[in-house]
Every structure is written in C-alpha cells, then in structure tokens.
Amino acid sequence: MNANPDVIRILAVDDHPIMLDGLAAVIGTEPSMELVAMASTGEEAILQYRKHRPDVTLMDLELPGISGEEAIRIIHNEHSAAVILVLTTFKGDAQALRALQAGARGYLLKSSVRHDLIDTIRALHEGKKVIPHEIAAEIAGHAIDERLTSREVIVLKYVANGHSNRIVADMLCISEATVKVHVKNILGKLGAASRTQAVQIAHKRGIIER
C-alpha cells in the first residue's frame, strides 16, 4: 500500500543496468515520485509487482525468460487496474498493439525518456493513455490490413533465419507446397515483392523480432 498517496510509486523493469540507472536518475529528480523497486527479468517483474503493488510500472519488452509482453499480460490478468508503461527502442505498430492488447496503458520510446518520462508517468497516473504520435499513426495506418495468421508468423520467422521452403516444410511437418502458399500470403499481406522485403517489413513493424 502507498503510505503517502501524494507520491507516485514506480517499478522499473529493464535488463540493462545502465537503463535502470538512467530511469532512477530521472525519477530521482521528481519529489512526487519514488522508485520502489527494480527488476531485470519478466519473472522478477511479476514478483516485484506482487510485492510492492506500484502505482506505475515501467516495462521493457525484450527481457530474458518471460518477455515483457507476457509479463504485462500476467500482471494485468492478476491486477486489472495495473498501470504499465512500455519502454522500448522499437516503433513497430504490431509490437505496440500487442503490448497494448496485453494490458499496457502507455508506450514510450527510450529515446524520449529524458524529456518525456515524468510527464508520461503523471498522465498515466491520472488515468490517461499515452501513445507517441508516430506509433499511433503506424497503428492507424495498418488498422485495416489483413493480419498474418499465427502459422504465417512462424513461417516468416523461419524465412527470416534463411531457411528454404523445403526446410521450413520439414520443420513444420507440412508439404513444401503449403509453405509456398503461406509465403505467397505473407508477401501479399505485407505488400512485399520478395521474401527479403517481407522480413524487412516484419522487423520494422515488430511482427517478428530481429
């Protein structure tokens, strides 16, 4: 519980110590905020949230073990009122949308932390949602796009790793002809002219990780 309701209690989650130190430094400049705990993995984030019940949680998406996205989902399922801000270097609309669907209330690029973190935390604590304009525009721009199926995403990941259709077929225990159909659908949905371009688009949008 928060002994001082005027102070916003914060949990910071990132697997890079330098980033955690930076967050601590920025938060430390604001008297109305307190960094009550830090975590470097998804598992630690869940445990620290349960222990401290912070007002706002800052969550990196790329974490060892349980991903940030999955940690958000678990925390949100246990505590629907949890206020979670995603901190990431990626501008991809697909990744942002997944995080928001998992339960995040806001999204902030790490490059904006120094200038925007305090105001963003305050806005979230007031019940607002915060999404950078460029990411909101990306989400809106692809809102009517036909999404890749889960199987198509799996195929695309194998393609991104340089595997041929035959190898992908063997790995997924399906025919090579079926893989070709999946690849054709992937190219069409992403508006790509080649497998290489499809992978580039998928990386940029956060459909698959680099």
UniProtKB/TrEMBL annotation:
InterPro entries: CheY-like_superfamily, NreC/VraR/RcsB-like_REC, Sig_transdc_resp-reg_C-effctor, Sig_transdc_resp-reg_receiver, Tscrpt_reg_LuxR_C, WalR-like. Residues 9-125 form the Response regulatory domain. SMART domains: HTH_LUXR, REC. CDD domains: LuxR_C_like (cd06170), REC_NarL-like (cd17535). One of its GO terms (molecular function) is DNA binding. Keywords: DNA-binding, Phosphoprotein. GO terms for biological process: phosphorelay signal transduction system; regulation of DNA-templated transcription. The modification 4-aspartylphosphate is found at D60. SUPFAM superfamilies: C-terminal effector domain of the bipartite response regulators, CheY-like. It comes from the Bacteria. Residues 141-206 form the HTH luxR-type domain. It holds the Pfam family Response_reg. This is Response regulator transcription factor. It comes from Dyella dinghuensis.
